[in-house]
Amino acid sequence: MASSRPKGRKAESGTVSVPTGRRLTAESRERQIVEGAIAYFAEVGLDGHTRELARRLGIAQPLLFRYFPTKASLIERIYEEVYLKRWKLGWEETVRDASLPCLERFRRFEMDYQRTIDDYAWLRIFVSAGLKGFDLPSRYLGMVRERIFAPLLEDMRAESNLPSPQAQPLVADEFELLFGIHGALVYVGLRSRVYGMDGTADRDAVRAAMLDAALPGLLATHRRVVTRARPVNPIGE
Amino acid sequence: MASSRPKGRKAESGTVSVPTGRRLTAESRERQIVEGAIAYFAEVGLDGHTRELARRLGIAQPLLFRYFPTKASLIERIYEEVYLKRWKLGWEETVRDASLPCLERFRRFEMDYQRTIDDYAWLRIFVSAGLKGFDLPSRYLGMVRERIFAPLLEDMRAESNLPSPQAQPLVADEFELLFGIHGALVYVGLRSRVYGMDGTADRDAVRAAMLDAALPGLLATHRRVVTRARPVNPIGE
DNA sequence: CCTCCTCTTGAGCGATCGATCAACAAGGGC
DNA sequence: GCCCTTGTTGATCGATCGCTCAAGAGGAGG
User: Does the pLDDT of residue A17 top 70, yes or no?
Assistant: First the structure.
């Protein structure tokens, strides 16, 4: 029971050089820590322990604190690495691409976006941060709302000959229209990555089918939402 | 800084009767603990601490262990209280109600189901349990799949003159059809309860609108999925 | 070979975790 | 009035948390 360490490092006479903890450059060591922290905290949640993280990395626990002054700063770095760094400016370009119909822009954005976030670490750390009350999830979804959905809805208004957002501001129900389809796609990943359901081998194909089913009626529903939201007698029509 | 206790209980000479910790019957004390534990663990996650839970209840921490031998047993009790006990047999009756069209059964089930689970404790503990690797979420969603979606899909097959599940087993894509709409509705609650987004005042109305938008095309999509899933030359048609 | 810089570690600090135990206290039955 | 059952608590245990610090150890430059 006592000598349970798997390999190396003799128990007594502690000054024996370790085989695992090779000497690395500061840069590569920091990268190793960040990658390991992403995988570890994704698995056990942000309440994970620094000692266990160090054990998995094969390094001593104080070494973590040489590269990150606190556990919170390491988690902050994970946010940058997993969420901010994986945000693609191409998404914002896609939804503004005037050469494509709005529905096709939405479809292309969602397929690529979902492929990005249907990731063990992305989804689990996102949810864990939400549970812990961090503002990362709300801020991130605020970006989706303002940088993706808002310009898309603006062009959907134009495509349907509806008043522009300058003339008649976007209403919550319009965003809910897009968040509804969005949520159906996200839920596919959540069931697998967070709830541990084993079904659905090809989630990408499932999402493509969902979009095929939901998109055809979207513009009509959008028109209904906007016209109903504006109880003004239609003069110019 | 030292005498920071809010009320009662003198600091020194510790044997003073406490005003808050009144003597309760075992039954009502246990209920108080369960209710408080649900609220507390929903707020901070299942990694919450027994000392803080006891402090919020105004009782001593060891009292928790008189009613629940371990923290895990208390959490197990929460599962029974929040999930098993709130499962409504009426849901299984609704989706089998032959006097209603399948789409109406689905609509009624989802509206009532979502009203049940769009609850701070329900959603957050569900997600927290999933992150900690407990099998509660997968088992619960398995119940939804087998007891709700499976009988509903069977009758949808009949309503569309498609082969019964006995003749041709239900395929994963059919379940995904229902889980897609289901996920869009769940996501409305998740954004508010877990991700902390403040939007959407009347989530119930938003979900009703989502169903109005998604249900009309559901049967046609279902027919397409089933017929495509069976690459046999149609003879008897 | 020695030196110095820097990556790395063992030991340990104060705080806090889940859980235990003997002692206190509030009523109900006699 | 007393006693005995039972709800309740303070004190405390061993383990583990985030974090600190001084000393060990591996290379590059001289």
Answer: no
